[in-house]
Amino acid sequence: MSGVLSLKPSYYEALKRLTLELAGVHLGDDHAFLVETRLGVLARQEGYQNLNQMVDDLFGQGQTRLAIKVVSSLLERDTHFNPDPDGLSIIESYLFPALQKSSKGQPVKILSFACSSGQEPYSLAIMVKKFRQLHPDFQASILGVDYPSPALTRAQDGQYTHFEVQRGLPIRDLISYFDRAGEDWVVKPSLRAMVEFKEFHLLSKLDALGEFDLVLFRNSLAYYSSPAQIRVIRSLSSIVKHDRYLMFGSKEDLPSSSYNFDKVEGYKNLLVKHPKPVVAEVEPDLPKPPPKEYVPDGAKAKPARP
Amino acid sequence: MKTCLVVDNSKMIRRVAGRILTEMKFNAEEAENGLEALNFCRGKMPEAILLDWNMPVMDGLTFVKTLRQEPGGTTPVILFCTSERDVIKISEALNAGADEYIMKPFDSDIIASKFYQVGLLG
Question: ipTM exceeding 0.90?
Answer without folding.
Answer: yes
